[in-house]
Design a protein that fits this description.
The complex is a heterotrimer of chains A (536), B (325) and C (471). Helices cover 73% and strands 0% of the residues of chain B. Chain B contains 14 helices and no strands. Chain C is mainly alpha-helical and 471 residues long. Classes of the chains: A alpha/beta (536), B mainly alpha (325), C mainly alpha (471). Chains B and C meet through α1, α7, α8, α12 and α13 of B and α10, α11, α15 and α17 of C.
Chain lengths: 536, 325, 471
């Protein structure tokens, strides 16, 4: 018996200030979920998967409207209900878990109030019974010391705990359908795994129907019974998970599956070349101030004594979760952050004691690519000015005419067109922007590029292309990369060596093959365990 | 907390010294003590002795900022600036140029000021919040649009016209309240009604619009979506989730003016003849009494800084996320 | 031909007077033009401005503001007329009275003084006077006005005359508007021939035509009726109220623009340095603006204006003309108003600079070794201009309103200068009279209200389009 049945649901953007005609954001889509089943709705950002889930709950923002279709939830026609009747469906029959646990809890209410609200509303609980139920829910979602945490506010909990509270709210009234919209995207990988396991366990225990919305094929592989792939507002393929991974029919599905890491083939380290960059016991500390006179009472040790070596033509991946200090280390190498101790050598020369002026010649040789392609380019400058800025500042090509030719050649090298020089950043997609950022970095012909999570803001299908480009450039120009990332899955294709960072120190480093297959440190093992694996 | 407050008070000191330096510098940039004496003594042909005597009596016979004649001790202290401003820090305002005791005047006149300003403040904020909530409840409807147009119209009218209009209709045409004046005790109410109403009405346009924006900002946040997904009704979402969160920026932004309520309103007090600090200041400005103006500037700064500290403290009271460090 | 020569002669004989505020307002218009030209080159900015001008309220309020600005600009070209030569002297003396081009346009209004108050459209004075009949009997009654309704043969025609003239004005206005709109529509039609697709994304021409027609109608009606009547009555000394309220437009517009602009460089330089360099620079800037903003604004203004007065009194030799004195005081007032408001903008700019300088593109520029000046000029400044812009348009109406209050308190513009605040101040005491003399206040109210409302509507649109938060 199907619990949820969606037929020909379509959503349109209503005509508004900036466009005259309405626009169809979700084309008529149909799918169904049975009790105890997980349907994964997969797609990249903007494919309309979140809108579809909001439409099921009739929670679309004001500018959007349901154009057509019907939704049956346990035999009830959802679109025929009045708003008041709908309120008794939301939270009781169907519940939602959202992506950002940070913002999806009310900041000024306690945990108890927020879980209690939904119980009070649908179950009419109060007093001691309510309290007891809340505590048992918190236990069920794996929050320890539930009794003590009742009076806590969301900001006092960690990200993973917050998501557990959100799940507790969703499950409080024993709904039959759970809609989880990217429930783990905002969490660190180790926590991600725990939350997914929790969802899976609850599904089994309660015979929940789950609509799991995600862009991450690893999550799909781990969780889904069935898969629906969404692209540009349309479902292009629906299949049972095993068949889907074994024999995807749609080309786009194949691209998605292909983005999963291959754990069997590794880059072999190049013949031991001369070291280009060496870090010896590097420390970056931030002062903590306190008291009436704001004395420095201690230091936040963002980077606390790391030693690394990158050879010419080599890629070193610096892996760690958010807050581990990996980006700070990158900034320190670029001399954007002062060192609290340790030594930095580049091509055999010590560089950590240079003044900004003395460092100038090195800026040509060490370049950087940032994570967010939307903030790494000045929106008020056109592509020509963006690319030429470094060349002018570092006097790489003072002749204007030759520079123009170089710029055109650069754009073509990274897979864009020479005519794009007069465009502005907002006219490009995320992947194209990241290509621009690469072009900007290689414009000054550097020897080392610090890549700070260059692909984590990109959709999976584009991620591979950008990584491919980086590798080609490495071979052509003999570049070295320090590749900062939290995503272990991209490492096998990319890095020769890996260093794992946690709380400002490096817990383990070695060749990619060794780290990925025979990790020594517990932390590395737990990181690896949480990396999704292709089931095939 | 205590350490924080002490630190903030310590920060206030250089700011207050700066304020005094500013007023002194401004004043003596165009004026010399001699000129002051001449203006005060009234006659163009005053004898040198009379001027010297006037200056000596009022302590204007010293150098302005730096006394080079003194040794290291008196270098900075034996000056007009130190003399006049050091006393302000212990709230000894001295005498006005006319010879009245400023401190006594202030403590006498701040009560009528407060009697007008406090009700205006409280009623004004409550009215604006209620209106804003109303508008937010019907957001993106014709009512919302109409209310916003009305707000823009209201806030495009100068406060002077609200006062003139109010006085004309309420007092002159319909004889509901006296045009102006003030009496102590319960009689005061008759005189206070109109200024308070006008003060409230004049603020509705800007206030409602601002608070609506703040509420709408909250209404678009993720936790509101969570609440809706729980099955909470739209009214309950507004009152249980949007209102408490929206009140935080509203309350904390108005706290800063609370101490300054003592200063009264220049405009309202002078139009309605209320003997408060506002009209006191205005009279002093018009009589060019520097001693009073300087005292009021100092008092105003102190109250403003007090307001800033109160703002920070109020954050910790209403917002569980904020802790003072 | 002879006539032309005499006009030329007359033109050559006048002595232009350049006031500082005139220079500033014209250079302001020029720099605004340059600024918009710069903006138009950036597609992002162009898109935002399009959002402003494609909204009906935005474009209508903009036209109204332009109209006010035009009047202010006309009123900012000053000159002095030569006096009749005294016998036996070749030296040309110039009138002490400084006129502007606007005065030429409004000559009819300016030269129609009465003795004292008269109500709008009245033909009798507001106050009784002793008069003599032809046979010498003295009696008291309301005298006829010297310059209003003199052409009426019969007083009973009064209402009819106003109606007929109004209709006439309306016809003329309708004709003028029809010609302008017709010509423009024809031109647009030719432009758009074969470009039907572009027509979708076009300005709200209907609103533009409507606003323009409304302005044309108002102008025609006022010009026609003011030939024979005091549309808004006369004031205490018999001057035409309409004339003074139009003259006050310059004061209002200039105070709204110059007050921010005079202190804009200070706010920009300090705000950006504090946010960009941080450390001790930040401490100093924060100290400065906390100190300044802790002084109650109105007191700071009052003190400063008093001091300006003292300065003018003690240096009479520098201000030989009333106009120059008034202008000095006016600029000083603008500067002081700006001084009390720049701290807010500075704080905003500091915060935004802090944010922008953390962005990756600034970090990337650092990584390329781009110098501080260049980073500020190329990366920071362009990305915070929207804040400056929003502050400019928001402050405009605030200052226009502030002027009225300040002039009322007695620390506003010079009493000799036409301003709405001064008009209110003068009329205030007369409100207790019976019957009430309401027209000065009403005139100031209407003209001010229209300007401030237009400015507020426009600034709303600008904020909607440029503030990322409101989107």
């Amino acid at each position: 018996m199907e619990l949820l049945k969606v037929e020909n649901l379509s959503i349109e953007l209503l005509p508004g200030k900036y466009q005259q005609a309405g626009r169809l954001l979700v084309k008529p889509v149909s799918f169904s979920i049975q009790a105890g089943e997980i349907l994964a709705l997969v797609g990249e950002s903007g494919s309309g998967k979140s809108l579809t889930s909001l439409a099921l709950m009739r929670l679309l923002p004001e500018a959007l409207a349901i154009r057509s279709g019907r939704v049956q939830l346990a035999g009830t026609e959802v679109f025929d209900l009045t708003e008041a009747q709908m309120n008794s469906v939301r939270g009781r029959m169907a519940a939602m878990v959202f992506q950002e646990p940070q913002s999806s809890l009310n900041p000024v209410q306690t945990i108890e109030q927020q879980i209690g609200e939904v119980l009070r509303l649908h179950k009419g609980l109060s007093g001691a019974a309510l309290r007891e139920k809340i505590i048992s829910l918190l236990h069920e979602v794996g929050i320890n010391d539930a009794e003590q945490r009742l009076g806590w506010y969301p900001h006092q909990l960690s990200g993973g705990q917050k998501q557990r509270v959100v799940i507790a709210i969703a499950l409080a009234c024993e709904p039959q359908l759970l809609i989880a919209d990217e429930p783990t995207t905002a969490l660190d990988v180790t926590i991600q795994k725990q939350i997914l396991e929790l969802l899976n366990e609850l599904r089994r225990k309660r015979q929940l129907a789950v609509l799991l919305i995600t862009h991450d094929m690893g999550v799909v592989a781990q969780m889904a019974d069935r898969v629906a792939v969404m692209r540009d507002g349309d479902i292009v393929e629906q299949a049972v998970a095993r068949e889907f991974f074994a024999a995807p029919t749609h080309e786009y599905s194949r691209a998605l599956i292909h983005s999963l890491p291959d754990r069997r083939h590794f880059l072999s380290a190049p013949a031991q070349s001369e070291p280009l960059l060496q870090l010896k016991d590097v420390r970056v500390w931030f002062a903590r101030r306190k008291g009436i006179l704001q004395r420095v009472v201690g230091h936040t040790k963002a980077v606390d004594g790391i030693s690394l070596t990158i050879g010419r033509g080599e890629t070193l991946a610096l892996v760690g979760e958010s807050g581990s200090g990996k980006s700070t280390a990158g900034r320190a190498i670029l001399s954007l952050e002062p060192l609290a101790g340790g030594e930095l050598y580049f091509a055999g020369k010590r560089i950590d004691q240079l003044s900004q002026r003395q460092f100038l010649p090195l800026r040509k040789r060490i370049q950087v690519i940032f994570q967010d392609p939307f903030s790494s380019m000045n929106p008020r400058m056109n592509v020509r000015d963006i690319l030429a800025e470094g060349m002018i500042a570092l006097k790489v090509e003072p002749d204007a005419e030759k520079r123009e030719q170089r710029l055109q050649a650069l754009l073509q090298r990274v897979g864009l067109e020479a005519a794009h020089l007069d465009r502005f950043p907002h006219e490009f997609s995320g992947g194209q922007r990241q290509r621009l950022a690469i072009a900007r970095a290689i414009a000054v012909e550097p020897e080392l590029i610090i890549c700070d999570e260059p692909t984590s803001a990109l959709d999976v299908s584009i991620r591979g292309q950008v990584l491919q480009l980086l590798q080609e450039l490495q071979q052509e120009m003999g570049l070295s990369y320090l590749f900062i990332t939290h995503d272990l899955s991209i490492i096998p294709h990319l890095a020769h060596r890996v260093a794992v960072m946690k709380d400002g120190v490096i817990v383990e480093q070695g060749d990619t093959g060794q780290i990925m297959t025979a990790p020594q440190h517990d932390y590395t093992r737990s990181l690896l365990a949480s990396v999704p694996v292709s089931p095939v | 907390m205590l350490a924080y407050i002490i630190r903030r008070l310590a920060y206030a000191l250089p700011i207050l010294i700066g304020v005094n330096l500013l007023t002194f510098a401004l004043f003596f940039m165009v004026n010399t003590p001699d000129q002051m004496a001449r203006v005060q003594l009234g006659d163009k042909h005053v004898s040198e002795e009379a001027i010297e005597q006037w200056k000596a009596q009022r302590g204007y016979d010293k150098p302005l900022f730096i006394n080079t004649a003194e040794n290291s001790e008196g270098l900075l202290t034996d000056t007009i600036f130190f003399d006049k401003s050091a006393r302000l820090f212990v709230f000894d305002f001295g005498k006005s140029d006319e010879g009245r005791v400023i401190g006594a005047d202030i403590s006498e006149r701040m009560w009528p000021s407060l009697a007008v300003a406090l009700p205006t403040f409280i009623i004004g904020i409550s009215v604006n919040i209620v209106f804003a909530l109303f508008v937010v409840m019907f957001r993106a409807s014709m009512f919302d649009t109409a209310a916003m147009v009305l707000c823009v119209v209201l806030l495009s009218i100068s406060g002077v016209f609200y006062i003139l209009g109010g006085q004309y209709f309420f007092a002159k045409l319909w004889h509901l309240v006296p045009i102006s004046g003030y009496l102590g005790g319960t009689d005061a109410i008759r005189f206070l009604i109109l200024p308070v109403i006008i003060g409230v009405v004049a603020g509705i346009g800007g206030g409602t619009r601002l608070y609506r924006t703040l509420f709408l900002e909250e209404a678009n946040k993720d936790y509101v979506r969570t609440a809706r997904a729980k099955g909470v009704s739209e009214t309950a979402v507004l009152f249980r989730h949007i209102l408490p969160n929206g009140l935080i920026p509203i309350l904390t932004s108005v706290v800063v003016v609370i101490p300054s309520l003592f200063m009264g309103s220049l405009l309202i007090e002078s139009f309605f003849g209320i003997p408060g600090l506002g009209s006191y200041t205005l009279d002093a400005i018009q009589a060019q009494d520097f001693a009073i103006v300087r005292s009021m500037v100092f008092l105003g700064s102190v109250l403003y800084i007090l307001g800033l500290i109160l703002t920070d403290i109020s954050y910790t009271l209403v917002d569980p996320r904020v802790r003072l460090s | 031909m002879n006539e032309l020569v005499s006009v030329m002669n007359e033109l050559l004989s006048i002595k232009p007077v350049v006031l500082w505020s005139d220079v500033l307002i014209y250079s302001l218009v020029v720099s605004l033009g340059l600024f918009f030209y710069q903006l138009s080159k950036n597609p992002l900015a162009r898109q935002r401005w399009r959002a402003v001008f494609h909204s009906r309220a935005g474009v209508a309020s903009f036209i109204v503001i332009l109209f006010y600005l035009l009047i202010a600009l006309l009123d900012s070209l000053h000159y002095r007329e030569p006096l009749e030569k005294t016998a036996g002297s070749d030296e040309v003396h110039y009138s002490q009275e400084v006129r502007s081009v606007l005065d030429v346009v409004l000559t009819e209004l300016r030269n129609k003084d009465e003795k004292t108050y008269s109500a709008p459209f009245a033909i009798y004075s507001f106050a009784k006077e002793n008069m003599q009949t032809e046979d010498g009997v003295v009696y008291r009654d309301f005298p006829r006005l010297a310059n209003a309704g003199q052409h009426l043969a019969d007083e009973a025609d009064h209402g009819m005359d106003i109606f007929v003239r109004s209709m006439k004005a309306l016809l003329v206005a309708a004709f003028i508007s029809a010609v302008i709109i017709g010509l423009h529509m024809a031109w647009r039609h030719r432009q758009q021939h074969g470009k039907a697709l572009i027509a979708q994304q076009t300005l709200p021409w209907g609103t533009i035509y409507l606003t323009l027609s409304a302005l044309v109608v108002t102008c025609c009606w006022v010009l026609e009726l003011s030939k024979e009547y005091h549309i808004l009555g006369t004031d205490k000394v018999g001057q035409d109220v309409l004339y003074w309220s139009i003259k006050a437009i310059r004061t209002g517009v200039l105070i709204g623009t110059l007050a921010t602009l005079l202190t804009l460089p200070l706010a920009i330089v300090l705000g950006i340095s504090a946010g960009y360099f941080r450390g001790w620079v930040d401490d100093v800037v924060q100290y400065i603006y906390t100190t300044l903003s802790s002084v109650p604004g109105i007191l700071l203004i009052a003190v400063s204006v008093l001091l300006i007065d003292v300065y003018i009194e003690t240096h009479p030799e520098k201000f030989n003309l009333v106009a120059i004195r008034a202008d000095f005081k006016f600029l000083a007032l603008c500067f002081i108003l700006g001084m009390t408001s720049w701290t807010g903008l500075c704080r905003l700019l500091r915060a935004e600079t802090l944010k922008v300088s953390q962005l990756d593109y600034v970090q990337a520029a650092h990584a390329f070794g781009v110098g501080h000046n260049r980073i500020i000029y190329r990366h920071i400044l362009p990305n915070i201009t929207h804040i400056i812009l929003i502050a400019l348009v928001l402050d405009f109406s605030v200052f226009v309103l502030a002027e009225a209050v300040l002039s009322y308190i007695g620390v506003g513009v010079d009493p000799s200068m036409a301003s709405w605040g001064n008009m209110i101040n003068e009329a205030r005491s007369e409100l207790s009279r019976d019957p009430v003399v309401w027209w000065s206040v009403a005139a100031a109210f209407v003209l001010m209200f229209v300007l401030v409302l237009a400015a507020n509507l426009f600034s709303d649109r600008v904020r909607d389009a440029f503030d990322p938060r409101s989107a």
